[in-house]
Amino acid sequence: MPLLVILFAILILFALISLFKINAFLSLLITSFIVGLFNNMGPAKILLSITSGLGITFGSLALIIIFGVMLGKILEDSGAAYQVSNRLIEIFGLKKIQIALVLTGFLVGLPMIYNAGFLVLIPFIYSLYSSTKLPLIYLGLPICAALSVTHGFLPPHPAPSSIAYLFHANINKTLLYGLIVAIPTIIICGPLLSNLYKKINLLPPKELFSAKDYNNQPLPSLSSSILTVLSPVILILIGAILQMFSISDSKTVKFIMFLSDPTIALFIAVFIGIYFLGIKQKRKVTDIMKSLSESVTGVTMILLIICSGGAFKQILSDSGSANYIKILTDGFHMNPYILTWGIAAMLRFAIGSATVAGITAAGITLPLIAGTNSSPELMVLATGAGSLMFSHFNDIGFWMFKEYFNATIKQTFAIWTVMETTIGIIGLIGVLLLSHFI
Questions:
Q1: Which of 38, 209, 319, 344 would bridge 387 by S-S if both were Cys, CB 3.0 to 4.6 A apart?
Q2: In angstroms, rounded to a whole number, what is the distance separating the alpha carbons of residues 260 and 237?
């Protein structure tokens, strides 16, 4: 019976989001109530479970997401993202331009969510197309692949951070393992895949986007830009390495581990950015703070959706549904990485949002962890890979690609959907290979 309730709840979630166009935040809350009612939880207990799930998730993730968005805004306003990408092109030259583009997308994508990173870099792609005369897709796909992979696989992005929380995975290790899987995935789905589309002649839309002119403003130095971009990643990776090798528990190590906490690492990076990309560039502190405040308002709904995913997970746990799945799957021989990947892929196809798909899939498959030797960190990566599959009409990324690359619906399916699906498949293969060593 609990399993049927979960399947019914997923169908309701599909219908609310896809058919009735109800916001994902409200849809997840409604679905959580339904799961509770069908599992004979009283209204008061349901409300307590939902508020508990919301509160715990918010407390764990709010600062990570907010600091990440602030950092992205600083990089955008200061022109640091443009500075990094422009210098990389100068260093690598035209023959190795795709290497520069992959690095650009990767560096900008580490601290910025996909949509923000895409909007920051699309004018750069346009100007590069104009100056090099290379095909637009040949230039754009490596960046899109890098942005998508970092968004789906790597903390401190909202989706992988949330999934890591649900699976009780170590975020430092998740980032470290994620980098191992992400690098070959980006290379295959960016530079290599783009060669298939070199003959497709797409032109930048004439009036859709007004590129920001960075020529009339002083840009921060390359060293300051890279320091700001990489500082949280470096701190988190140091913590992961110390943890993996169980280095002595001295006060110095404890302090470094404190600095490597994702929340602290991003907090430090924000202030590095405020100084090097703001104050040092003669920007007024009041203007910087106003810009950061505006950036946080833009992430409010994303944060609410993530927290409602936590409420859904809490209902599954408190209603006994999660324990029922655990008992049912004892002795179940399907690879848990493939299972969570498949559930996330189906949810992505039905819902559209990779974030919602990943978080929901994690809530459903969480009980499988206790009965297997699977790595929570690899479960995060498998879920993230599945959540990028089958992008189509109900995904905002699908429409952004279509409009900004001036593609037809058929071309968008042939390029964007194929790229996203390939990322999901290569990501799963990377997880399965890595599972033999972890």
A1: 344
A2: 7
pLDDT band at 370 (very low <50, low <70, confident <90, very high): low
**Cα distance between residue 219 and residue 81, in whole Å:** 10
Q: Which two tokens stand for residue 114?
A: 């996909």
DSSP code at position 219: P
Per-residue pLDDT tens over the stretch 246-267: 666 778 888 888 888 878 888 9
Structure tokens at 359: 């978080």
Give the end-to-end CA distance of the chain in Å, rounded to a whole number. Answer: 36
Distance CA 208, CA 259 (A): 42
Q: Categorise residue 21: left if φ over 0, alpha if ψ from -120 to 50, beta otherwise.
A: left
What angle do helix axes 285-297 and 43-78 make, rounded to 10 degrees?
A: 140
> For 209-225, how does the pLDDT look when each residue is reduced to its tens digit (9 = 90+)?
445 566 667 788 888 98
Please tell me the distance from the alpha carbon of residue 267 to that of residue 261, in angstroms, as a whole number: 10
Tell whether the model's pLDDT for residue 35 goes beyond 80: yes
Torsion of CA 326, 327, 330, 336, to 10 degrees: -20
Contact 318, 41 (CB under 8 A): yes
